[in-house]
Amino acid sequence: MASTGTSVRETYERITGSSKALWERALRSLPGGNTRTTIFHEPHPLYLVSGEGCRVTDADGVERIDFISNYTSLVHGHCYPPVVEAVRRQAGLLMSGAGPSELEVELAERIRERLPSVELLRFANSGTEATMQALRVARAFTGRTTVAAFAGGYHGTHDYGVSIPADATARPGGPGVPAAVAESVVVAPYNDVEATRAALEPRLDDLAAVIVEPVLGSGGVIPAEPGFLAFLRELAAEAGALLVFDEVISFRIGYHGAQGRYGITPDLTALGKIIGGGLPIGAFGGRADVMELFDPRSEHRLPHGGTFNGNPLSMAAGLATLEGLTPKTYERLEALAVDLKQGLEELFGGPGIVGRVTQAGSLFNLHFTDGPLRSHADVQAADSARLRELHLAMLDHGIIFTPRGMGCLSTPMAAAEIDAFVDAARLALGELGATA
Predict the structure, then answer these.
(1) Domain at 2-75+327-431: CATH architecture
(2) What is the pLDDT of residues 149-195, one digit of tens each?
(3) Which member of 80, 154, 190, 330 is catalytic?
């Protein structure tokens, strides 16, 4: 196994010499040669120079099929012509300015049409900013402090977001997080009604918000069970707290997002990724009585600045992206994702391979386990080292997804790309010491 794993690494290093040189150059200016933790992997990251449709080309001129699309944000793939044209046109008119644009109004209207729970919203520049502001307004509206979250949930890199541990038994917090913030976060296991009730009951009188991903994204693409979301909706209402859906990733699983798919109405929703068409963006919104706290005409308003909030380029790209996302588009992507899951699970049913695939809409995640997959604890119990090896081997065979096994589909994909992923997985698993 070790020698096979070494050959996979050696192949990667041999075909990515230019990426390695760029990374070594970056080490002189960036800590670890990195400015985005999630895209680093051993032995060095892959430097990209161009993309078209569902394919990208690296610094060595090698083309690969992209099954992560900048961590799910490029739902139409790279250089989607309507987005390119919209951004080019807008760049010639106004790239940014100290005033709103009509595009901001139009994108807000499109989002409200797809998410009836969002009566009013505001734009930001990332999903991190969106969840940060959603939690802030929840605390301001309720006059409370405690935030409930779930192990394995990812809500960005602000203090509250990074306080959420991967293990529900671990204490919230982390390096650089003030003790007061960590102490105001309660973490429960995902998809576990009784354990969640027990964890939250002592803090219900001070509970400001319950924040949850309807589908855990980086936590393993684990869908919330409908009964669990319904329980959270009821619990938050009874406690006088706000239910916050983080749909930064899950908004891509259906025309009305995960909330429309599961029939649960949150008080607030955080968005990002696909609503910006590949440009930086975030948005948060929900009940009018909550969001009106941001009304600048109010004497007791919550300030929310941001030099690039509602940036015209991001607004134009977002509008062009949503225009191309019809209900039929979502159905087609999901059908392809189901085909991919079935193809991979046939491989995992072969001798010497123990694995499963979780899937929601156009999202999927590979797991080297034969156990249940209801929470992040189940994901942690799987063989993550083997996933990292598979990721590297798949790069050698022309496929990009993440070292933790997560991937997604984009609209330029068809059956040929699904077959290519399964074929590459078959070859990679064979190299890693498993037969199919």
Answers:
(1) Alpha-Beta Complex (3.90)
(2) 999 999 999 999 999 999 999 999 999 999 999 999 999 999 999 99
(3) 154
Residue 263, class by beta-carbon neighbours within 10 Å (0-12 exposed, 13-18 middle, 19+ buried)?
exposed
Catalytic-labelled residue, pool 66, 190, 267, 273 = 273
| Most distant pair of Cα atoms in the chain: their distance | 68
CB of 284 within 8 A of CB of 294? Answer: no
Q: Which residue has the tokens 């595009």?
A: 103
Domain ranges of the chain: 2-75+327-431, 81-323
Contact, 5 vs 432, CB < 8 A? yes
**Do 143 and 149 meet the contact criterion of CB atoms below 8 Å apart?**
no
How far is the C-alpha of 174 from the C-alpha of 162, rounded, in Å?
A: 7
Is 154 considered catalytic here? yes
Name the active-site residue from 246, 267, 378, 396: 246
Q: Please report the beta strands in 75-174, taking only residues with DSSP state E, as ranges in sequence order.
A: 120-124, 146-150
Q: Give the DSSP letter of residue 413.
A: -
Whole-angstrom Cα distance, residue 269 to residue 381? 30
Write out pLDDT tens, residues 195-226: 999 999 999 999 999 999 999 999 999 999 98
